[in-house]
Amino acid sequence: MRLRHxxxxxxxxxxxAAAQATFRVTLDGPARSExxxxxxxxxxxxxxxxxxxxxxxxxxxxxxxxxxxxLDAELAPGASLVVDDxxxxxPLEPSQLAPGKYRAQARFDLARANSEWRREPxxxxxxxxxxxxxxxxxxxxALALTHVVEAEPLPTVEGVEWFELRSxxxxxxxGHDVFLRAGVVLPRDYDPKRKYPAQYEVPGFGGDHRGAAxxxxxxxxxxxxxxxxxxxxxxxxxxxxxxxxxxLFADSExxxxxxxxxxxxxxxxxxxxxxxxAAPSARILRGHSSGGWSTLWLALTxxxxxxxxxxxxxxxxxxxxxxxxxxxxxxxxxxDASGADLASLRSNGGVKMTIRQEARGEDILxxxxxxxxxxxxxxxxxxxxxxxxxxxxxxxxESGALDPKVAAAYRKYxxxxxxxxxxxxxxxxxxxxxxxxxxxxxxFYLNEAVKLLxxxxxxxxxxxxxxxxxxxxxxxxGSVFGHESMQAIPSEVLAHFRSAGHASAAN
Length: 507
Prior knowledge:
The chain contains 14 helices and 23 strands. The protein is of the alpha/beta class. It folds into 3 domains: 6-148, no CATH class; 160-318 and 414-499, Alpha/Beta hydrolase fold, catalytic domain (Rossmann fold); 336-403, no CATH class. Strands 1, 2, 3, 4, 5, 6, 7, 8 and 9 form a 9-stranded mixed beta sheet that branches. An 8-stranded mixed beta sheet has the order 10-11-13-12-18-19-22-23, sandwiched between helices. Strand 18 (283-288), helix 6 (290-301) and strand 19 form a beta-alpha-beta unit. It starts with 5 loop residues before the first helix and ends in an 8-residue tail after the last helix.
């Protein structure tokens, strides 16, 4: 499990003198009265790093990776254990910490239910402990788990209602109660006697239905076309979270029937409760990043439910460029042909994080692809289960070597592959229903796959009546929102509803 990557170790530990740092983590009795079992992680930040002003448990940090140490543990109230070189570690072991000043914090993750540990009631964490490492001097750092994550009540926001439904399909699949959730933003000047179309929004990675609260506050300040759209339609923010992180609303071997549950259970229940028009043309999809991929998948898989999608900066849409790797013909997710580490995140022309750094950090949070973070969420959605019942890894966690058998299973979720193999079905949907925008300098290199998809679509003639498009425009994963094509989306959605007779010019 442990990776001793010499280059990264030298970067973070310029002195090779053994410092013999260890961490004693204690479960505070008042914090929990029963034994706890889960994943214990110690986060460390070195003084002078780019993230020196952050809390250690906010890690892993994309722009300046810091040491992580983790192990599966069981603790009784008042008991403690030592985290040392026997723990899983990246990019170095505790004894390899270079002399200097640090801050540390511990987190005990007891649940596997969400990508965000702060949304899992019962999880524990410690205060920050400052310490100094001196060469040749053993140092034990004490960390007490004194804080407990409490269930956060849903906010009360005027014009927002919270909807929850037990899913029969997902509950059966997972063997316990599973609930589908949505934040329902009512139209401005809401008239319950009239019928409305709906915008179904899928949040990006880490987001959930609570995003409806912020959206409602923004709706109160909207003007022009945005205000018209807010009066003309419901905005329904979905919750894509599950034990493996973002589900992408795709039926999968690891996550279960997430798409079917949405379409066959949640949407009908919402239309029974609210005055929604039950027609594909009255249901459109919007999403960015992982939400962008989700909305593309839903629009292409369930065109009888969703009539159109506005999807932006989506997760890889053609797996010949899964970020920077061709999963069908490539050899490694960690290095290119010259042996240089492949990037996962860039900004202003510079690499901020490599795939190795991101994936290995996830390994410390949750071994065997159980972290619920970005790579593990993709493994869970697109791939099979391994022999231990967890998502199978697309690539080896230490070497980065691709597994061709796992890669083959990804083809059924490869949107470019679907278009190439079955243009009779998918080309009309792309031409009619799909509106896709991505920045040419996407921070996660997602433009690479979008370019391949655009090239494939370019091989087929367009009809003058086709309203769908795939656009690559200037911008990265965030700055693309400022482009005029993105700014035009509300006008396009409103025009779509009007052309279908679901919104009048007076709205």
